[in-house]
Design brief:
The protein has 15 helices and 2 strands. The protein has 319 residues and is mostly helical. α2 packs across α12 and α12 runs parallel beside α14.
Length: 319
């Protein structure tokens, strides 16, 4: 098996795993195969999928964005606060305001990593902690006031032709991500920087701009996920983004994207999102404690990292 065949297998394996989980679960819970359940899981997967799309772009660089939880939560708080004023003008700005917040935080992350040269893990974790502190100071530690706008609710919980609108939003984001990765020079630069940022810079590419834009996209996707989640719950609440950090990274990694950057498949990320969603649903039905879920997600990530270590050997053996 050569490296390309291995990559294809790795990107489709999570999808096969998701199907097997649904079939196995149907023996204990027959509703697993019902159209209602599958559409509900697709709707829930959409929130994770939108966030994972941005996260994958950063991981392709060989970087990581750990500010996802409070970028997501901050965007949800801003959107619901604007919508909760009752002012039609401010309500209309609820979604754009949340997206702008996410893009701004992404730009801050990009500047810290690309220009100040601070490791992404340290910088984005610090930004996440600062956002947490600002939110607590603003709300006093209580759930923020406000409510979702009708458009936010429709995006998260509405249906069009029987299909969740959230899934259609995820589909639109996926199309944009695929075009960005495979039809633009930006996508090629992402892969090049992930393999060797120094060589890419010496070839004349403005690597600073590429890295900053990648983090802006990640922040915007996290914000969109937060806006949709706020619409689903009809409110924002403290730490609503915390449960999404590990599943997002797990979905991207098990889909075949190298945590070291330079290689990855968006189809694999979609497969990983579906697998993680179904797995989470089964763990919830089993009433497994959240601590055990985190252990399982961490174990999945470690297992996939070990599997990715086989890729260079395959590559060398096929060359």
């Amino acid at each position: 098996m050569n490296a390309r065949q291995w990559d294809r297998l790795q990107s489709l394996a999570p999808l096969v795993g998701a199907v097997l989980l649904v079939l196995a679960g149907s023996f204990f819970y027959p509703k697993f195969l019902s159209a209602g359940y599958l559409l509900q899981q697709l709707q829930i997967a959409s929130f994770l999928g939108v966030i994972a799309a941005g996260s994958m772009i950063v991981i392709l660089l060989g970087q990581i964005d750990l500010s996802i939880p409070w970028t997501l939560t901050g965007a949800a708080i801003i959107s619901t606060s604007l919508a909760g004023t009752g002012d039609p003008t401010l309500t209309a700005l609820a979604i754009p305001g949340g997206l702008f917040f996410g893009a701004f935080i992404g730009a801050v992350n990009g500047v810290g990593v690309a220009i100040l040269r601070i490791p992404a893990m340290v910088w984005t974790l610090a930004v996440n902690a600062m956002l947490l502190g600002v939110a607590v100071l603003n709300t006093g530690g209580f759930n923020p006031k406000g409510e979702a706008s009708p458009l936010m609710i429709e995006l998260a919980a509405g249906r069009l032709a029987g299909i969740p609108i959230a899934a259609e939003v995820w589909f639109a984001v996926s199309v944009l991500a695929l075009l960005l990765l495979h039809r633009t020079t930006f996508g090629r630069y992402l892969i090049a920087i992930g393999n060797s940022e120094k060589a890419t810079y010496l070839s004349g590419v403005d690597t600073f701009r590429v890295v900053i834009l990648a983090f802006v996209i990640s922040g915007t996707c996290s914000a969109l996920g937060g806006i949709m989640l706020a619409g689903y719950a009809n409110q924002a609440y403290q730490s609503m983004g915390d449960p999404y950090l590990m599943p997002v990274i797990a979905a991207v990694v098990i889909g075949g994207t190298s945590i070291l950057g330079g290689s990855g498949s968006y189809v694999g990320t979609v497969s990983g999102v579906l697998f993680i969603t179904v797995l989470t649903s089964i763990l919830s039905i089993m009433q497994l404690a959240d601590a055990w879920r985190q252990i399982i997600f961490g174990g999945i990530i470690l297992m996939m990292l070990l599997m990715q270590g086989l890729r260079p050997r395959l590559h060398s053996s096929s060359s």
